[in-house]
Amino acid sequence: xxxxxxxxxxxxxxxxxxxxxxxxxxxxxxxxxxxxxxxxxxxxxxxxxxxxxxxxxxxxxxxxxxxxxxxxxxx
Length: 75
Fold this sequence. Notes:
- By secondary structure, the chain is mostly helical.
- It has a single domain, classed as Orthogonal Bundle (Helix Hairpins), CATH 1.10.287.
- The protein is 77% helix and 0% strand.
- It contains three helices and no strands.
- The chain has helices at 2-10, 19-36, 44-74.
- Helix 2 (19-36) packs antiparallel against helix 3 (44-74).
């Protein structure tokens, strides 16, 4: 009985983040811009915006991971 209480107390829920979804969207935007270029559709800004979104998502995701690791190290 004691073991069950200890495992429930020590298990914490991971905070939700939008970084994985944003990185997937950034990758899709990059490829959308690349694939539409040969057809004469000039949407190079879509690839640039996708690259920026991907960079932001990876930065925020890694920042969250480092923050979680620092909390675990303090425990």
